[in-house]
Amino acid sequence: MHPTLAADRAHLPELLQAVRDLAARELASVDERPAARPGPAPAPQLLPVTGTGADGALALFERRWAPGFSGSAGPRYLGFVTGGATPAAVAGDWLTSTYDQNVSAGGDSSAAALERETVGWLRAMFGLGEEHSGAFVTGATVSNTVGLAVAREWLGERRGLSVSRDGLAALGPVTVLSGTPHSSIDKALSVLGLGRSSLTSVPVLPGGREAVDVDRLDAALTALEGEGRPAVVVANAGTVNTVDFDDLRAIAALKERHDFWLHVDAAFGGFAALSPAYAHLTEGIDAADSVCVDLHKWLNVPYDAAVQFTRRQDLQVRVFHNASPYLGLPALPDPDFLHLTPENSRRLRALAAWFSLAAYGSEGHREVVERNAACARRLGERIEADPRLRLLAPVRLNVVCFTLADDPTAERVASFVRAVAASGEAFLTPTVLHGVPAVRAAFSNWRTSEADTDRVLDAITAATTTAT
């Protein structure tokens, strides 16, 4: 064994204590850590020939790289839809590396059974039935891709063929209908060879809504059936800009008259099911053929973690099974996970989620959802009262979408976003809503309080003054 590696092995407890001390210091100060660090990064260095050992690497990281890391785990990082990591989730994530389990197959440990238990807990949390099987993947993009890959196989089944065997050329034209799909749907269609142009936009409801007009969706499905073409419908349980929800019950009812695959993108909006005040928004999700939920958003587990669900595990296995003697054949109803997702190599992502669910239960996670939603309403009310700002949509759940009241050009809005980030007090991300350059503040961190919300407002007010 290399002497440096041997020395690290001999002093592993001391090394882990040093890492623990650094992590504890960082987490203890994350509430006050700058939400963003937009400054220049250190210049790259050459690969060392002789390493410094783990202690030296830790010191080098703390000196060169740690100062430039953002406070994305903290309470005022409101960019994208980014959760933090609950204490239990951090513990679970550390142990994931410690045990370093391979969850591709289940023949060597109980790790795959733990993932199945965690999937079952999540299924119950989101109001899905026993017929929905699930598996962990890296994020919403892969979850959407897996769901649409199964939908692609279903389309082939409807035409008496297997796309996974016969290829896309045998399938012919495909139509995917949606009102306001997330950009990851486009990406998934590209990856799957269905093509971005297969996505057909269905008109949304009037009045600035992002929810699909179900009557227009009905008409689009009728037209496709007239051509003898089954379709895929992508419904939204929470749009990215305004957290608008499609009427999932009404869309599901269309399945009584039309033949289509229903995929629900519930990346973060699915967590509305936890709260009695918002659960009605997800009613009907149980009728979906596939569902995407992103866990490093509102479940507040570390990156990267998501889960995908489907009713047609048999088709999923047909798409993703890996035929190799050393891996074995997929055995229904509980095939090894490598036969269900794109990855053969799978870490135990479920452990961080298991820890957080076991530690806080559905009640603890409901409190986070409701507190975040209350903070979003608080910020929305303050923005609406400021004549220099304009709220672009009602605050439906946890996202506040707004812009400058006067001349909201892309340049001025970008300058405003940079000013907020430069303050270190908050981090927001830009967007465009109905052609208007805008800003999103997305609340999904378990630490965020009313006091944090007021500090975000102060940063917005200061940046608004600069922008005007």
Automatic annotation (TrEMBL):
Key word Coiled coil present: no
Taxonomically, the superkingdom here is Bacteria
Named cofactor requirement(s): pyridoxal 5'-phosphate
Q: Which UniProt keywords apply?
A: Decarboxylase, Lyase, Pyridoxal phosphate
Which Pfam families does this chain map to? Pyridoxal_deC
Which biological processes are named by the entry's GO terms?
amino acid metabolic process; carboxylic acid metabolic process
A GO molecular-function descriptor:
aromatic-L-amino-acid decarboxylase activity
- Report whether Cell membrane shows up as a keyword of the record: no
N6-(pyridoxal phosphate)lysine PTM positions: 297
According to its UniProt record, which protein family does this protein belong to? Belongs to the group II decarboxylase family.
Protein known as: Glutamate or tyrosine decarboxylase
Give the organism the record lists: Actinacidiphila glaucinigra
